[in-house]
Amino acid sequence: MKRLPTPAEVKVNCLIFIAVLCAMCGIVYYGKNPSPPESVEQQYLNLGSYEQSKEKFKDLLLNSEDPEQVDSAYNEFVDDVQSNFALMEGVKSGKEKLFYSILRTFIEETAQKNIQLNDVMIAVQSPRILDYSILKREGEFEFQIGVVSDYIKKATENNEYTFNAIVNLQEKLKALGEDSQIYKNSVSAISETFAKQKPVLELLGQAQIDYGNHLLGILENLKNNKKVWLYENDMLVINDDGVLTKHNQLFNFLEEDE
Which helix (H) or strand (E) segment is 208 a member of? Predict the structure, then answer.
């Protein structure tokens, strides 16, 4: 059966959020124009390193089949952004210091959520899941259904977090003072940049949930009809037209989720 391309796919969520925040910083401080050479941001932020690590991660995400390589690039990218924000937090003062502190904390929270979803994605893509040769062993259906159900739960929670996170961030930014220019610019930038990425996030999030639901449907269909199927000569044989039709439909949906 086909699998989702890689557990690292879920990290697109974090990538988009970070891109939103970095774009927001540019709009907040520089408007639509490049920042002046004498700005504190230009002096301290390693923007070249940020762009390099971002492009490296995006390239590997699209082209690499090595999950460890993708994970390494992802961690490098997140660490790069966090270190930049931490650096700015250290050299700034007052509301600007608080601004970078809020962004750094938000990135940490978002990255942690993606780590949690990444873990259950690895579990649900294990070769053990939907291995017909072992499904009828005692307790195996329960184990696999448990793994898939946990994945659906975490994917749903992550989806909810994704679409509540921007609102939550806006609430945290109120600590800057709702009448302050930095707050107004921040909220405006968040809305503008996130709106462009929202359709991608919606498609990715729903695809992850659909994948889990269709996989769960296949397992439950086979569990509820153990007597009409067997696995022999490396082939699944279903001796009931209704069960077979449902299995094929769910399996086709599963492949479409790719």
Answer: helix 181-223
CA contacts within 13 A on the Cβ side of 79: 6
Q: Dihedral through CA 136, CA 137, CA 138, CA 140, nearest 10?
A: -80
Q: CA-CA distance, 120 to 155, in Å (whole number)?
A: 9
For 144-196, write each residue's pLDDT tens digit: 999 999 999 998 998 888 878 778 888 988 998 989 888 888 888 777 777 77
| C-alpha of 220 from chain center | 27
Q: Where along the chain do its domains lie?
A: 7-209
Residue spans of alpha helices (H) in 31-176: 40-44, 47-63, 67-91, 94-124, 140-173
pTM: 0.76
66 token code pair: 């090595």
